[in-house]
């Protein structure tokens, strides 16, 4: 689902206020700085871990032949499938799906204990997600979660929650907890405890 261009409202407001208040010379300098900052933010950090994560999944599959075969992508842009290099990896795009629905999909993919086909699945998600932290803490008796890969070069701006966390709390969580990680999640069965 395409996102609305909400960033344009900020740019238009900045442009209008600056052009009214400052001379052209100052406006031009501010415009350059504004575009440089947003270029770095949106061009490098915002969703910047998606391509490296997809490359890693493809390389693991190719090198070992036993890498993650089912990968669930949650709260990220759609991963570019061509980066897998023809490797057979089931990719499930959960993009903006609610956390409870994401948990259901992962649980179904793993299967039940005692069933043939119980398997580990990969979850690619931003490390700044509060819902993910809560879910992993709640299910640590039933699920084994192993961090396989992580990059800090990823900002998930979808986790901005100024109303609930305030400016300091939101920036601390989103910028301080920035990153994208791949976890291997598998069910802990009674015979493996």
Task: Please summarize what this structure is.
This protein is of the alpha/beta class and 193 residues long. It has helices at residues 7-21, 24-45, 50-64, 99-110, 130-138, 162-176; strands spanning 70-73, 90-93, 121-126, 143-151, 180-187.
Commentary on this structure:
With 193 residues, the protein is an alpha/beta fold. The protein contains 6 helices and 5 strands. It has a 5-stranded mixed β-sheet, with helices on both faces. It is elongated and about 75 Å long. The mean pLDDT is 79.
- Report helical residue fraction: 40-55%
Helix/strand structural class? alpha/beta
What's the β-strand tally?
Answer: 5
Tell me about the largest β-sheet. Answer: 5 strands, mixed
**Low-pLDDT sequence parts:** none
What is the chain-wise order of helices and strands?
A: HHHEEHEHEHE
Assembly context of the chains: single chain
Measured distance between first and last alpha carbons: 42 Å
Q: Roughly what fraction of the amino acids lie in strands?
A: 15-25%
Give the overall average pLDDT.
Answer: 79
| Count of alpha/pi helices | 6
Which shape, going by the Cα principal axes?
A: elongated
Sheet with most strands: strand arrangement: 2-1-3-5-4
- CA-based gyration radius: 20 Å
Set out the fold topology.
Blueprint: H1 7-21, H2 24-45, H3 50-64, E1 70-73, E2 90-93, H4 99-110, E3 121-126, H5 130-138, E4 143-151, H6 162-176, E5 180-187
Parallel strand pairs: 1-2, 1-3
Antiparallel strand pairs: 3-5, 4-5
């Amino acid at each position: 689902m395409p996102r609305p261009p909400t960033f344009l409202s900020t740019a238009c407001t900045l442009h209008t206020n600056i052009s009214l208040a400052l001379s052209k010379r100052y406006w031009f300098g501010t415009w350059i700085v504004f575009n440089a900052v947003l270029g770095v933010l949106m061009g490098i950090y915002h969703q910047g871990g998606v391509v490296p994560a997809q490359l890693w999944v493809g390389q693991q599959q190719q090198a070992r032949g036993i890498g993650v075969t089912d990968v669930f992508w949650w709260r990220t842009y759609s991963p570019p499938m061509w980066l897998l290099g023809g490797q057979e990896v089931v990719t499930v795009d959960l993009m903006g799906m609610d956390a409870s629905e994401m948990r259901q999909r992962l649980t179904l993919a793993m299967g039940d204990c005692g069933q043939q086909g119980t398997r580990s699945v990969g979850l690619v998600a931003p490390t700044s997600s509060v819902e993910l932290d809560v879910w992993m803490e709640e299910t640590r008796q039933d699920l084994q979660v192993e961090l396989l890969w992580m990059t800090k070069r990823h900002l998930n701006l979808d986790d901005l929650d100024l109303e609930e966390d305030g400016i300091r709390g939101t920036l601390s969580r989103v910028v301080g907890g920035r990153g994208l990680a791949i976890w291997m999640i598998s069910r802990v069965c009674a015979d493996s405890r």
